[in-house]
Amino acid sequence: MAQCLIVDACEAERDRIQHLLEPYEFDLDEAHDAGEALEKCHGEMPELIMISERLADMHAFEFIKRVRRTQKGREPVVLVYGDDASPSHIGRAIWEGASECLMQPFDADVLDGKLRQVGLV
């Protein structure tokens, strides 16, 4: 079973994303900030990381750079989600190591399309 780590400061948003991911039978884990998520990634790297751009302790781009520098950091698919849909912002996310971006609000169909696009389903 593939592992997924959801990183978001908002518990309601983590719950919403967990609900959207239920049909895919991921082994779901969550972190409320980037520091906690990095600790979890050092323990066991998940196949999928879904991370909000808005975290109190670190921007998602910095988190991605740190993950990608680890021994297994090239392995996970990293989906960044937020509300900035500008081409420059999306380009920067990809440049920093994100696999794809999701614009909020997103629904089950949009998430399914992204998971198919990155080869997880």
Could you name the CATH class? Answer: Alpha Beta
How many structural domains? 1
Question: Strand-residue fraction?
Answer: 15-25%
- Helix count, DSSP H or I runs of 4 or more residues: 5
Fraction of residues in helix: 40-55%
Uncertain residue ranges:
none
Task: Output mean pLDDT.
Answer: 96
Question: How many E strands?
Answer: 5
Q: What's the name of the CATH homologous superfamily?
A: Response regulator
Tell me which oligomeric state these chains represent: single chain
The CATH topology is given as Rossmann fold
How are the strands of the biggest sheet laid out side by side? Answer: 2-1-3-4-5
The N- and C-terminal alpha carbons lie at a distance of: 12 Å
Biggest sheet architecture: 5 strands, parallel
Order of helices and strands: EHEHEHEHEH
CATH architecture call: 3-Layer(aba) Sandwich
